[in-house]
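User: I'm putting together a teaching handout on how multi-component assemblies are represented. Below are the sequence lines for each component of a complex, exactly as they appear in our records. Could you produce the 3D structure of the whole assembly as structure tokens, so the students can see both representations side by side? Please keep the chain order the same as the input.
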Amino acid sequence: MNAAPVSVALSARDVSLWYGARQVLDAASLDVASRCITAVVGRSGSGKSSLLRCFNRLNDEIDGARVQGSVRVGELDAYARGASLSELRRRVGMVFQRPNPFPMSVHDNVGYGLRLFGLKRGAELDDRIEAALRVAGLWDEVANRLDDSALDLSFGQQQRLVIARAIAVEPEVLLLDEPASALDLAAMLRFEELLLQLASRFAIVLVTHNMQQAARVSRWMAFLHEGRVLEFGDTDAIFTNPHRRETEDFITGRIVSGD
Amino acid sequence: MDRLHLSQHISRQFNAEIEDVRKRALAMGGLVEEQIAAAVTILESRDAGTLAQIGERERRINQSEVALDEQCTFILARRQPTASDLRLVLTVMKMLGDLERIGDEAKRIARIGERLVAEEGDLDVMALLAELGAATRDMLRGALDAFVRLDEALAHDVLRRDVQVDRIYRSVQDALVARMQEYPDAIPAQLDRLWCARSFERIGDRCKNLCEFVLYLVRGKDVRHTGLAKAGAAY
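Assistant: Of course. Below is the structure of the complete assembly, with chains in the same order as your input.
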């Protein structure tokens, strides 16, 4: 059941996380396969977003947060002493539920990371920005608006913009935290098409409350329960015959004993 | 009783829908079982007076099939069931087809039984046919019990019983071939008896299908054409 994916882009081992005295993750382990979508599902408060935030050390920004265990992206050991945070964040990009464009032009939003990593203004920068916007499916809509403020874009466009920004620096892993929860059905299905296209280039970790979405797009699935990865496996197998009673109760909407 | 916790959804409406599908599938199975019993009675008592009831029952079986199929389709469309819920709906949809065909076989036997009413003798063959009928009816009842109780052991037990049905079928066949050689004039009647035996044997096979669906429902593994059903029969 817990078959290891062929090529692992990110490997989390026994990750525990505390916010002050409160333990949020309890020895969570997960292998994220290259070039496919791994869905992370679980109830609210099960630790999904917290786990995601461990993958690029976003929890470092929170006072009192303490992490144990290891997260490896290729040869990079994210929590090793002296590990480069900017290197980690370049290799592990993140997209949040609400798009968060920076208050600057479309062009500068997408170019932000590239310039941070030393690319000067010029033809190469413009080419990389265009390429990222094309992959994110936004180029045709903003080609003539590159100097407009990103804040003037529609919600759906902003969402693709932040994806373009995340992939412009060519990360290995893309973390998506409930990225489609505010979209209508047609927009959501288009967004899922984009995710599947992105999955041909990057390893994607998708946190979602939408089980049908997880079923539609993910190759692998991890079920988080009380801070633990209780079940991990092939999405087909989990949706037809999960091993654990807790997984079954969750995906079928059953009452949990003790609730 | 509820090993798969089918009645423990947060949505009470969904619990009711699932329960309703199970009940209706069982009720349809009950009608099909009555159909076999009625066919056996016609063969045994040589009285075809119940033929009209059999026709009426067949209409009800067909209606149940269509209605249940539709109900399952609606559940798939509206609930997008997963895991054991999905397996239950798929199992019922597959069972419907076999139940309906078992009903058809029983009706065929009853029709032939009507033709045989006027035929004399061959009491031993008729006794074997009745035995065959009773055995397949037991298999169907067992399969339906295994379905409603989600009882793996019983499903295996019923799968095993098909060996016995096949054995009786071969006895009937051997007896009939001998008779045909001895009394060529009676070949039409013996052929009719052979058709009855053949239909009972098919019912046994379809009951095996039902049990394999039950095993899929309970275990989440498809045991068709794998020999797993047989292997499991050891316990």
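A couple of points students might notice: The CA atoms of residues 74 and 80 of chain B lie 9 Å apart. The interface with chain A takes residues 5, 8-11, 14, 80-87, 219-221 of chain B (CB under 8 Å).
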